[in-house]
Every structure is written in C-alpha cells, then in structure tokens.
Amino acid sequence: MNAITNIARRRFIISSATIGSGLAIGFDLSLAPAFANTASDAPEIGAWVVIQPDEKVIVRVVRSEMGQGTITGLAQMVAEELQCDWKNVSYSYPTPAESIKRKAVWGSFSTGGSRGIRTSEQYVRKGGAAARMMLVQAAAEQWGVSPSECEVQKGVITHKPTGRKTTFGKVAVAASKLPVPTQISLKDPKDWNIIGKPLDRIDNLSSKTNGKQVYAIDLKLPGMLTATIKESPVFGGKVKSFDAAKISNLQGVRKVLQVGDTAVAVIADTFWQAKVALDQLPIEWDEGPNASIQQADILKKLEEGLTASQAFVGNSNGDYSKVLAESAQKVEGTYFYPFLNHAPLEPMNATAKWTPEQCTAWVPTQDGEASMAAVVAASGLSADKCDVIKINLGGGFGRRGAFQDYTTQAVRIAKEMPGTPVKLIWTREEDMTQGRYHPIMMCKLTGTFDAQKNFTGLHMRLAGQSILASVRPAIVEQNKGMDPVVFQGLAKKDLPIVGEEATLDYTFPNLVIDHAMRNTHVPPGFWRGVNINQNAVFLECFMDELAHTAGKDPVDFRRQFMADQPRSLAVLNAVVDGIGWSKAPKKGVFRGVAQMKSFGSYVAAACEISVKDGNKIKIHRIVAATDPGYVVNPAQIKRQVSGSFVYGLSALFEEEITIKNGAVIQKNFDTFGSIRLAQMPPVETIIIQGGGKVWGGVGEPTICVAAPAVLNAFFKATGKRIRTLPLKNSGITLV
C-alpha cells in the first residue's frame, strides 16, 4: 500500500519515447535539478506531452475534471511553454497503475483544496518547455544550424536567418531520440500568450449541456449488472440480520449480500430492480449506543466548549487577558454553523470487475491514487493486478477524494460476481445519510474597547469538530492534539498541512484564537472550502459588530488593521469601489462587505440587497474580487467565482444536516435545498493578479465571503444580527 499512497522515490524524470511515432515527455513532482533520460520502445511509457505526426498534441492529465476547468488550465500551461497551436490540443487520463509502473512520473492524482493547477504548475510547465527544446533541437540538427537561431510559433519551427520551416509533427520522432535538456527555463509571465487568455475549454461543454457526456453513473459495459446498497442509518451501527429469501424471487434480482459489518446490498439486472428489492428487504440493525444521540446533545456539547478551560491556541499576540480586565466596554456574539452535505448531483457510484487475476474499477474520483488504494485493499489482490479508470464526475466538492467508501463497496460487491462488471449506485437517500459532512462549529467572539471606543483586543473561541482527528489523526497527534486546519484563515502562520497561505490578514493589538475540540459521532469531511467557510462568517460578521460599536464605517474599520496586507486591502478596495460604497445606495437598498484569505488567494465581496416584510431578501448584485496570484484562464475564473457564490448562498439560506436518534434527518433535496436560478444574483468578478511565489486557488476561496457579506447587509437593512445558519431557521428566505 505504501507504494501506492506514499511513493518515497521522487526523482525528477523526463521520459522520451516513441508513442505512435510521436514524442512523449513526463515529470514527477520533486523538481530536483538533475534529469534522467530513459528510452524505451514500449508505447505505454508515461508522458505529459504526446505529439502525433498530424500535429495533434495530447496532454496527459491526472487531476480530475468535475466542472471546474482544471484540465483546460493544465493544458494551457503545457501549451504555453510548448508553443503549440491551441486548436490541436486534447487530453487523456493516465491510470494509477501506469503511474506506479513509471515510478510516479505524473506526481499527485489528488484534486482538492483548489490544488489542481496551483500545485502542479511548475512541473507541468517544465514538461512543455522541455518538449519544445527537444523539438527545436531536432529541427536544428536536420538543418545543420544552431537551436538558438530557431523560433517557435503555434507548433511551427522557423530558422530565422533562412526562413526554413518545419512542424512539430515532422520532427517528433527525431526529437524523441534526443537526450533531455538538463537546464530548463520557463517563460516570464509578461511573455505569456496562452496562459491568461480566456480560451475555450477542451472538455467539450456542449456534451454536458446536450446530455451526451458520459458520467460514471451512465457507464455501460457488456454483461454489466447493477447494485444498490443500504448502510446502517445510525453512524457506527451494524447489520444484525436480514431475510434474503423475502426478495430473492423478485424480478431481476441476482444476489443479496452483506457488505462488511454495516451494509446490505442487492445485485440485479437494473438499478430500479435492485432498489425495489432492497426497499422490501427486512433488515434488522444493531444501532449501538449512538442511536440515543439527538441534535440537542450535539449542540450542548459545543456550547460547553465555548467556556471550557482547555483549548488549543492557534493564534495569539499581545496580552488579551490584561486588556479584557481593563476594558471599558465589551462586545460579545455567539455564532453557529451546521453540518452540511456535499450533495453532488451525481450520487456516489463506482463500477468494478473482479477476477482472481485482475480487478479494475471505473470510478468518478477526485484522487485516482486513493481509489487505487481502496481497490487493492478491497480486492485482496496485489497492486500490479489492479487499476482504476477515471470517469468524469458529476460533482465532487471534496466527497470523492479522501473518502473512498463507495469504491470499497463496489469492489466487495463485484467479488461476489467474479468476471461480471457490477455498477454500484447509491440512492439519493443513501448519499444524503452516509456523507462525510462539513464539521459543525460554534464560535464565541469577545471584543474589547477602551473608554474612547478604541478597539483593544479580540478573543475567538471555536468549539466543534476536527476533520483531521477523524481523517488524519496522525497529524493531530504530531500537533499535540491540535487540528491546525481548524484555524484556516485565522492562523498565525501558514499551514503546511493544507499547503497554503492561511494566516489571519488583520493585525489586531491583542488577540487569542483557540479551539475547544468537540467531536461527534457524525463523520466530518472536507467540504468545498473546508473551515474557511465558518471562520469567515464568524470573523467578518463580528468585524461589522465591532465597527458598529466603534461608530465607524465597516470598510474603514477593516482598513485600520490591514496596513501590512496590501493584497487583502487591494481586493477589499476593489469590491467597495465596484459596488460604489462611497455613494449612498438607492432608497431601500443596503450593502454589506466581507474579505478573507485562503488557499493562497485573497478574496472579497460586496453586495446590495433589499428586504421586504422584514424577512424576504432580494440580492440585487454581488461584486467579487479575487487575487490568485496568477491567472491561467480568466473566463474560467469568472465561472468558478459565480459557482462558488451559488454554493455559499445555498448554505446561507437553505442547507443544514441535523440528527435525530443518531441518524441524519434530511434525506433528499426537499429538505436539503439549494437556491434556484431565479434567486441567483448577477456576480461581477474583478480579477487581480498579485503575483508572488504562491499560486492561489480559485474554486473554493470565494465561497466564504458570500454569507458574511449578505448577513452584514441584512443588519444594515433591519438592525438584526443573525448569527445562526441557515437563515430559513430564522424565517428568512431568498426571493
């Protein structure tokens, strides 16, 4: 298993080989200065770039596409350095088994934490640059000239003194036989002409809108059967007994089986037959002690954490205890953020075919290597007898990355039908009640002021779940029991765990931010944006409360504490200018603002709303600014920012997961809703390129500023502070 999930030998490799009479270049992640050139006649040798004789360029992509546009961005970076013709570019997905055979030549397969582009840009761009250098060298040798006399434009190599020309496809075979250059320089960003352009996506958006796109749930294989599954509704429960004879004679049913200790599945000719049979199957559950847990019990545990004496300090400076004792005025507010389900439109599913000699799984996965590890473990076979074929995802949002329960189940079920492909499809109800949920959290904030109403200090006490305590407990142990990711956006220093800038971008005179860990039986997970979502609500709404107490404009109050954060200040200024903050809004229209930093990006939002009857909110417009450092495809960034507001506003107004008798209450979209198209306001996106050493994320950061911006505007409109999400529980709706 270690060979799959933690490959220790991370050499920097460029593999050149003849692939269909073409050229292939590949890298791994280490970026060591030395290069190793390996030649082989085997066409399967891994590569980042494949150039065919007809000038077609295939970019090998291991990150997952789930609507965010990652594969187009990665291809743009390769094409920029390769200097090929964009219209000739396509892509393919290598498999984890291929990666293992080639000593992890493609690096990480994981797609999460907005890392798809930002943590692979270096080695992907070097792949394109190395390929270009080799192609130019091949052409120069044919002409008997120096490579320095040649230039490349759109896949055409020109010898500048004589005007002679050739194309990539014509010299690809010769180039593949050359030694790989040991020194590779990348283009200066000012010289980019493909990176930074709003180029068309290469994953064919039209097929997604006309229904031709094949997602994993659509997959059809010869002789395939379909299964569905039901797991103990109470987390931690087990199967006590079931009566397979009651449904064995139903139409299409092939097999009824127990899957592990916790679930029962039915295999049938069709999904509907399997579902109908499973619904009629008598199952008795051993629900265990968690069946007595109610939502009120969980809330009580969190409330106790707000005043607990023991807590992990994630950020502090000054002497908060002293200023608290000496304060002339104190402001307090307690906020709440609920459990949330990922709720992708495509429920969990995977297809597997098992024989004693080979196990292959077709998986909509955010991490092919994690899926591969699950297949190996569940199949009972060695890694060289397993593989995972990635199928496009109908939504992921973090659910299909670290959590491979659905893949494990699919393989275990397929083992019961050797040689037959079996597709496992979860029902919507199963997907809702067997999630890995956004952690539940409360936060008590206390701000202090002196007699002149100068803000003197802040204490933030977080009380709630730790994701890492459940998913990666070794990291918590290394940090002496603390989960550093809880402090996303609030931390004193960058968090290497999540590989990002996650520090607090305010400089307060006296500060304590701590966390009383209160874990529950409900399994937590990495939900799109992760902990920055609740932390932004807590901090940015309370910043407005502090500004109100100080008698200052919310924007001016923020600026007071952002002098040493020029990029944060830039996005804040961009949205307040864009919304027209300095001028009064139209009568009946009110504004709110929020800003935050996460995933290496700086984001802010300002909105305009009106409120009817005290509880019906209409959002007229949102101005959003994002600074991810560098921009690969601005059109895609605008789509991602708009999409993130759909996610953030849905959580604000509609979404929550609650517990009764140890089980999830919400079982479908009728009780776990999202905002509708008619409710979605226009989003005006401002893109700022701040540069720097860190490439920031795009798909997750702006989610977090949606809720606090609207909540702050609602206070201006009504004078009411809403500190508990979702707003539907306060009788507030979006119109």
Instruction: Name the strands of the widest sheet in spatial order.
Output: 12-13-10-20-17-18-19
Rg calculated over all Cα atoms: 27 Å
Give me the CATH architecture of the largest domain, please: 2-Layer Sandwich
Mean pLDDT: 91
- CATH fold-type name of the largest domain: Aldehyde Oxidoreductase, domain 4
The CATH superfamily of the largest domain is Aldehyde oxidase/xanthine dehydrogenase, molybdopterin binding domain
Alpha carbon gap, first and last residue: 51 Å
Taking the sheet with the most strands, its summary is: 7 strands, mixed
Number of domains: 3
Shape designation: globular
- The low-confidence parts are 1-22, 25-46
Task: Please give the share of residues in helix.
Answer: 25-40%
CATH class of the largest domain: Alpha Beta
What features would you describe in this structure?
It is a single chain. The protein is α+β, with helices and mostly antiparallel strands and 735 residues long. It has 3 domains: 2-194, Aldehyde oxidase/xanthine dehydrogenase, molybdopterin binding domain (Aldehyde Oxidoreductase, domain 4, 2-Layer Sandwich); 216-288 and 348-425, 2-Layer Sandwich (Aldehyde Oxidoreductase, domain 4); 295-340 and 437-734, Aldehyde oxidase/xanthine dehydrogenase, molybdopterin binding domain (Aldehyde Oxidoreductase, domain 4), CATH 3.30.365.10. The strands form 8 sheets. The protein has a 7-stranded mixed β-sheet, with helices on both faces. The chain has a 5-stranded mixed β-sheet with strand order 15-23-22-21-16, sandwiched between helices. Strands 24, 25, 26, 29 and 30 form a 5-stranded mixed β-sheet that branches. Strand 18, helix 10 and strand 19 form a beta-alpha-beta unit. Residues 1-22 and 25-46 have low confidence and may be disordered.
